Amino acid sequence: MPAPNRTATAATTELGRRVRAQRKKLELTQQDLAHSAGLTISWLSGLERGKRKRVELPGILALAEALEMDAGDLLQGLKADPQR
Fold first, then answer.
1. Spatial CA neighbour of 23 closest among 58, 61, 69, 55
2. Cα angle 14, 70, 51; round to 5
3. What integer pLDDT is reported at residue 8 of this predicted model?
4. What is the reported pLDDT for 80?
5. CA atoms of 7 and 33, how far apart (whole Å)
6. Which of 8, 33, 66, 68 has the fewest CB atoms lying closer than 10 Å?
7. What pLDDT is attached to residue 7?
8. Portion of the chain with pLDDT greater than 70, in percent
9. No. of H helices and E strands in the chain?
């Protein structure tokens, strides 16, 4: 069985893309979103750039709330990369 941090890469990359798109749609800066979600700008920037290999549920829920969306919508269709 592959290590969890390796299989999550494709999913977290897509999650970061979705977060960035919604953030821009809401015309929020990374600083605004990080503050609203209780996260650091560095952490958020890493997620948006596809540098985070793992994201935990509290962070996802905080991001979804700050992005004015349902966490299920944020995660819908994400799958681990089966080739990793």
1. 69
2. 25
3. 55
4. 76
5. 27
6. 68
7. 44
8. 86
9. 6, 0
